[in-house]
Design a protein that fits this description.
By secondary structure, this protein is of the alpha/beta class. Helix content is 23%, strand content 27%. Strands 1-2-7-8-9-10 form a 6-stranded mixed sheet.
């Protein structure tokens, strides 16, 4: 499952890059920059800045999981059953769905849209997360397709995965960013 795809990044590898954020990470780091990507399931992302305060989400929630707070209308994740009614009725898109299943071929079609930029600006694709190492077969499949298409592949990871499962992807990856609590390592091969 893919959490998000961002185009035209200059911060996550060499050149102009497309970032593909995998959904799911077994760690629950307090400093996680993408906490909505931690679950391996489709989820609801909240943007309190977009909320117009209409309260429609409260009226459609059959679980009574949404309450008004000083920050806006907040979902109690312990009560929410992910029926997505609030998303369907949120006019301002302050609550939206995150997480989409892509086949390897469908994801490759999306990445391929940016090949012109990669060739002009020396970029490629960066697989991030969540944690891409926890989906080694999928990562291997998409990294192989990218390499066959001449697309530079970087993986950004916290290193949470088994080497035996991940090593099949290594021939298709140009560089790996591994971050942990105290270090950030850059490995290029």
């Amino acid at each position: 499952m893919i959490f998000n795809i961002q185009k035209c990044s200059i911060h996550d590898g060499d050149g102009l890059r497309t970032l593909v954020f995998f959904k799911g990470c077994p760690l629950r780091c307090l400093w996680c920059s993408n906490p909505e990507s931690q679950s391996y399931e489709k989820d609801i992302m909240e943007s309190h800045v977009r909320c117009i305060g209409c309260g429609t989400c409260v009226t459609v929630c059959q679980q009574s999981a949404i309450t008004k707070t000083e920050e806006g209308f907040i979902i109690n994740r312990n009560l929410c059953n992910r029926c997505f009614s609030c998303i369907d009725r949120c006019y301002a898109e302050s609550k939206r769905s995150v997480g989409e299943n892509y086949s390897v071929d469908d994801l490759m079609k999306e990445i391929s849209k940016d090949c012109l930029y990669f060739s002009m600006y020396g970029g490629g694709v960066t697989f991030s997360g969540g944690e891409p190492l926890t989906q080694p077969e999928y990562l291997t499949g998409i990294a192989k397709k990218c390499k066959e298409a001449g697309i530079n592949v970087t993986v950004e990871s916290c290193g949470c995965g088994t080497y035996d499962a991940f090593k099949k992807a290594l021939p298709y990856i140009v560089c790996i960013w591994i971050s942990s609590i105290s270090t950030l390592r850059f490995i290029k091969h």
